[in-house]
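Record 1 of the preview.
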Amino acid sequence: MSKVIVKARGRTGSGSAEARRLRKTGRIPAVIYGRKGNPVSIDLDSGEFMSSIKGISESTIVSVDIDGQIHEAFVKAAQRNIRDGNILHVDFYEVESGVLLRAKVALKIHGNPVGVREGGVLETPLHDIEVECLPKDLPERLDIDIAALKVNQSIHVRDLNLGSGVRLISNPDQVVALVKFAKAEAVAETDETAEAEAAAPAAAETEKKAQ
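->
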C-alpha cells in the first residue's frame, strides 16, 4: 500500500464552540499527541480525510502534512457522530524515526481450510497481535493463509512470520486459527444422550423393586 498522506492545518482556537465552527465549514478538529512536548492542535478537510484513510488499519503509519511540515503518526482514535456517522474529532499519535514503538498489528486470515471441507468448523479467536519494532519495520497487517489447515490442526502466534526487526509482545501460545471436528463431537454427544436415556428406565425399575 502506498504511503497515506493526510493534509492538515495548524489551529490556535480551542473549545466546543471552535470545534462546532470548524465542522460547519466542512473541517474536522484534530490533535497530534507526541512522545515529547505538547499536543499539536490541527484541523482536517472532512472529505479529503475520509478518502485518504479508506482501508487503513490501526498499525498504518500515515504522513500528516501540517502546512508543509510532515509528521509520521498513527490514527489512534476517530470520534463519530452516532446519528450520521460523521467524524467529529481525530486523535493522532506521532512516532519518531529510529525509536522503538509498540503497536497492534491486524491479522488478515484467508483461504478455505481442508478441514472445513471435511466437515470441521473453523475458529479464529484472535484478530491482532502486539509487537515492538522501529517505525520503518512495522507491518501494516499480517496475511495468514489457512487453506492447508486440517481437522484438529491449528496456527498459533508463534507460527507467524513477523519479518526482520519485529519482536513479538503478545503470548506466542495464543491460537490464531483452528479447525475442530464438529461431527465427531456431535456423535459423541448423541451417544451419551442415548446411553442416559437407556439407563433411565432400568434405574427406575431398580428403584421400584427396592420399594
